[in-house]
User: What shape does this take?
Amino acid sequence: MNNYINKYMHFNFFYYYNCSLAFMLQIFASILFAIEIRFMQMNLEQENIKLGEIANYDPLTHLMNRRSMKPYLEQAVRSQESFCVIMADIDNFKRVNDTHGHAMGDEVLIAVADVIRKAVREGDSVCRWGGEEILVLLKTRKETAVQVADRICRDISGTNVFYGNLNISVTVTLGVAQSHLGDTYQNVIERADEK
Assistant: This one.
């Protein structure tokens, strides 16, 4: 009988030991699985942020692109408050590309974008509208927008762009337009572009 009890206790010990070990291994595997899922979630979130940047920002100038500027323009129209746009066009940009190459043209775009970004307030919106055109949305009256445009023009005309052994000075032409009641944002941009 003693032998039977010893075998039974020995069996119970190994049974509980194996069950405990299996339970601990399951917990450990679950923790590893949870960590892996969280790691994959973090990677996915990072990739979504990158995709958002690619979708909404110009990769060269790091300004908003035309698509991401549209909601700001639509909101400005819906608010029925006066707003202004400044359309900046880099002078002789095609000649810079043709004469000095596209790498120099890229440097010019980057330099102009940096000057414009620094010249506007935090609440204003700036985007690369297309090619060498940069659009600024200002929630202000025309007099203030003209002052901002003058400052941008002065700051850019004092800018030299260096690339390799090349050094060129840059100028821009700016047009300013203020919204009127009943305008679409396209109307305001067209008026700024004409000027």
User: Anything to note?
Assistant: The chain has a mean pLDDT of 87. The longest strand covers residues 84-90. Residues 12 and 176 are 88 Å apart (CA to CA).
